[in-house]
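Quick one: structure tokens for this chain, please?
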Amino acid sequence: MARRAVRRRWLLNLPAILWLILFAAGPLLVVLLYSFLAAGDYGGVRWELSTDGWFAVLMTRDIFDDTLRLQDAHLAIFWRSVKLSVMTTLACLLLGFPTAYFIATRSRANRNLWLFLITIPFWTNLLIRTFAMLEWIRAQGVINSVLTGLGIVDEPVQMLYTDFSIMLGMTYVYFPLMVLPLYASMEKLDFRLVEAAYDLYASRLQVLRGVIVPLVSPGIVAGSILVFIPSLGAYVTPRVLGGGKQMMLGNLIELQFGQGRNWPLGAALSISLLALVMVALIFYVRAAQKGGEGHG
């Protein structure tokens, strides 16, 4: 009977296992294989074992004396991607924390209305939301029109095609991914503990740091990882708001598979991005475990 039950469970899980192998692990294995092949003359790969793709991720050879040097352009893009992802995560946290707290302290009927408003942007395509932000921050956009109309500035402020515009766009796009986990944690918060802290003459800052933040830390960690990971591999927002001048990892990978025609390098960069995501996930798991132990 036990063997029959185990066999039945495997048979029930077989479609999901096959799906993961064919459409999740399979493509990743293909990309990993391509990263160890030689680049084709006009794109694609040659079935020859080569580590040139991985070598070109961080190193390059001088075209004159063939000396080795760091791939400064790739390192700058790696740094920009991590920096903007961290800044986007912090911006979403600073804006999302009071937003989630506000929603959690409303009546249940009003909570549903506010959550509905928060999730509305997800009903719209990512590209449309990015172009909506473009209309706000371009030279003749809403913000600059208001500033020049009020006489605050004499000429439009250059916000588009900068790191700031990319961070602003990603903050707008991924903001709900921060609010929803924070709200899920704050909804379970026992506000009698907050009242007890006030009764013990704790200041608002002490209540925030000593009571609220520790209790909602799982939501903070979950929201941060949900924002950081897609920000790290973002393609559409940096492409539209960066104008191709401020590239991130997603844009660099697309460039190698497209105009660069260097598929092994693109595959190696893709695996490198996956490694960065795995590091972030390991950090999330450890932080969540510590948070759970501390809460217990």
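The two ends are 39 Å apart (CA to CA).
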